[in-house]
Amino acid sequence: MASKVLDHFLQENLDDLKNRGLYNMIDPLESPNGPVIKIDGKELINLSSNNYLGLATDPRLIDAAVEATRKYGVGAGAVRTINGTLKLHEELERKLAEFKHTEAAIAYQSGFNCNMAAISAVMDKNDAILSDELNHASIIDGCRLSKAKIIRFNHSDMDDLRAKAKEAKESGQYKKIMVITDGVFSMDGDIAKLPEIVEIAEEFDLITYVDDAHGSGVLGNGAGTVKHFGLSDKIDFQIGTLSKAIGVVGGYVAGKKELIDWLKVRSRPFLFSTALPPGDVAACIKAIDILMNSTELQERLWNNGNYLKKGLKELGFDIGESETPITPCIIGEEKLTQTFSKRLYEEGVYAKAIVFPTVPRGTGRVRNMPTAAHTKEMLDRALAIYEKVGKEMGILK
Ligand code: PMP
């Protein structure tokens, strides 16, 4: 018999979320997640994917995945430390290290998994973690799992970080102290102040950890935010995902050989969860080869990002302070933001509303993720729809 307590809990909480407009509706795609998508038979210009370089549908990656799948099958068959490690996994890890300019790398099944794995493998209850207040949910969960003391600092506020690092260090309470930040913050498109973070880390002997999920493939000629600032030998943990610019699935840590050796013997998802499938691994290897040999896709991404930003700004929208192709269009009030996104959808643009609690109250936005795969015509069509809906709703004069 089903549990009454569970039934009651689910009913009450689901109703509450629905009443507060916080229940996520899912729109399943009938097409690849490319620059134009199909939902319910309707074609939409897609400004919501993390497929920044269009690699998710690149024929070179598809061929690599198909070939490896035919050769090795669809699954790895075991966790990495039993016998789920193919030569391909090790090739991917060597390529990732080269790509990130580090000694070594370790791959995980997802970026989320990677943060859970890496933080808790090194930090424990005797330690403290200084964490940017806007860090991704997987970092927050990884920190919690470690049982270290979590000290949040105000978003990209270097005075606050310095004061909190000083206090933690001088308290003498902690064996190790780590500072963690996203490389690029995905809600506003701003870049972490890594040179200042490294300076503070050197002053107070902090371990440095950068999750560059949104910077890899985008900044630093593709190598990411750390490379963008020329800090490859100064950051202990460089985290990335294989699911955004790389276009496939997976996550990784790049760093010193001893760190990677430690993660291979101590990080639990590596030890206890089945390895990435061969086809995905082969596609990731191909993507990294492409990124290391050409910056053409990044150039297209940045050109498209700048074009969309300029267009939205000229129309009169508030596009915030983004420093990357991620372009928020800040509408403000939550309900208005959701209606705006819904009207864009009806007119043919898929751009999700992001509202409280993901962003602070009153700063609801429609977030645009232009990619290398968009054409100027698609972006012009999107801008025309933005103008129409913006005027109709009185957001634009
Ligand atoms: N870190 C950050 C900063 C992210 O934005 C995301 C994805 N939203 C992740 C980690 C998780 O990556 P994945 O989707 O590969 O699990």
From TrEMBL:
A Pfam family annotated for this UniProt entry:
Aminotran_1_2
Give the domain of life.
Answer: Bacteria
| Cofactor(s) of this protein | pyridoxal 5'-phosphate
Which UniProt keywords are given for this protein, alphabetically ordered?
A: Pyridoxal phosphate, Transferase
Q: Give one GO term, molecular function aspect.
A: pyridoxal phosphate binding
The UniProt record lists the keyword Cytoplasm: no
Q: Which PROSITE patterns match?
A: AA_TRANSFER_CLASS_2
Q: Which residues belong to any copy of the Aminotransferase class I/classII large domain?
A: 43-383
Q: Which PANTHER family match?
A: CLASS II AMINOTRANSFERASE/8-AMINO-7-OXONONANOATE SYNTHASE, LD36009P
Q: Which family does it belong to?
A: Belongs to the class-II pyridoxal-phosphate-dependent aminotransferase family.
Please report the name of this protein according to its UniProt entry: Glycine C-acetyltransferase
Which source organism does the UniProt entry give? Thermoflavimicrobium dichotomicum
